[in-house]
Design brief:
Elements: E1 5-9, H1 13-25, E2 29-33, H2 36-46, E3 50-53, H3 62-72, E4 77-81, H4 86-94, E5 99-102, H5 107-118, H6 134-141
Parallel strand pairs: 1-2, 1-3, 3-4, 4-5
Length: 142
Amino acid sequence: MMKDKILVVDADPFILSIIKTTLESAGYKVYTALDGEIALEQFHYRRPDLLIVDIMLPHLSGWEVCRRIRKQSNMPILIHTPVDSPEYRLHASKLGVDQYLVKPVLPKVLKNQVELTLKPQPTPLPRPVRPLPLAELIAEYA
C-alpha cells in the first residue's frame, strides 16, 4: 500500500522537523519547504496528497500558495499558523482550505487532524423512499 504524501511548508526549520518526525512515525511520506516558492515547486514535483502550510512565509505567502494550488488541485489543505482571527479563518474558507489549526498544536493533535483529513469519506447512501400508503396513491391518481 502506498503511503500518503504530505507537503509541509513553514519558515521555521524547528517546526518543520517536529511535524516531519511526527508524521513519518505515523507512516506518512513527508516533504518540506521553507518558503512559498519552494512549496509550489515541491507540489508540482511530488504531487502530495495533503498540504500543511503556514500563511506567513517568505517569497510567496501561504495564502498565495493555497490559491495557486487550489486552481490545479482539490487535495486537502490544512493551514497551521499562529494567527487566530475570524477574518483569516473566513479567508481560508473562501480559498477552499479544509482545516485551520492555530499554533502551537500538540504533535498528536496534528497527527489526528491529518488522519481525519486524509480518511476516505464514505459515500452517502441514497435517502430511502417512503412508500405511500394505498389510500394516498389512490387519492393522488384519482
